[in-house]
Design brief:
Number of helices: 7
InterPro entries: 6-phosphogluconolactonase_DevB, 6PGL, Glc/Gal-6P_isomerase, NagB/RpiA_transferase-like
Enzyme class: hydrolase
Catalytic activity: 6-phospho-D-glucono-1,5-lactone + H2O = 6-phospho-D-gluconate + H(+)
Order of helices and strands: EEHEHHEEHHEEEEEHEHE
Strand content: 15-25%
Shape: globular
Number of strands: 12
Mean pLDDT: 95
Structural class: alpha/beta
Distance between the termini: 5 Å
Radius of gyration: 17 Å
Bound molecules: ligand LXAUTJHC
Protein name: Probable 6-phosphogluconolactonase
Helix content: 25-40%
Strand order of the largest sheet: 1-2-12-11-8-3-4
EC number: 3.1.1.31
Amino acid sequence: MALSGVEKNGRELRIHENADELSSNLAEYIADLSEASIKERGVFALALSGGSLINLMRKLCEAPYNKTVDWAKWYIFWADERMVSKSHSDSNYKLTKDGLLSKVPIVHSHVISINDSATAEQAAEDYEFVIRQLVRTRVISVSEINDCPKFDLILLGMGPDGHVASLFPNHSVLGEKEQWVTFITNSPKPPPERITFTLPVINSASNVAIVVTGGNKADAVHLAIDDVGPDCEVLPARMVQPGNGKLVWFLDVEAASKLEDAKFSE
Ligand SMILES: O=C1O[C@H](COP(=O)(O)O)[C@@H](O)[C@H](O)[C@H]1O
């Protein structure tokens, strides 16, 4: 039982009864986009976040997807990373390795992780350089509306404060227009040093999904989606509006509980 395919202010909402149902629906969505992208371009360029998202992707590692997905054609990126070693429990890479990469046969050289021995500034620069090379070789396509990379899918989580990737409310990097990847050294959520995709890159993707569960995020979901006045226009999650792509919110009923008009039905 789920409320699926509801359009609200240019966003598709998929509301699920519980995290298990959300995980199944998310796995099907990712597998379908992977199939379409591989058919069209020969590869699937997927950018991930950390946090609760990885556990919610768990059904993708199970039957039938572990056998049917063409893992050899996948390229993995991160929409943000914390500047800690790859073996640190705060590392988005480690989270993904433990929850996904160790369970499915993704090619090691297709995993584009962030340099954890550089400064945040250098790591952001290196990562953008690699992405530019992969745009040149068409592993990642190019947006028709600007020269940004056009990822096949960017998967984002959202914090209770409305942050996505490492784009936090009121932070100056929200206004970054030139760079594809930037860095911060003052994250309000630890660890303080992070690198992150900028909004132009997120909003150039073919598909973006924001995956959110739990009642502690219901206020932020309401502010990000409902018509709530000009102050909320600057909430990072609300600023995710792909120009030429499709945006889907995957929610459970708790996260959706403060949305206006979202009725849960069979
Ligand atoms: O710090 C971060 O937080 C967000 C949200 O995490 P969640 O555990 O509340 O889902 C995450 O999407 C981002 O990648 C991460 O660096």
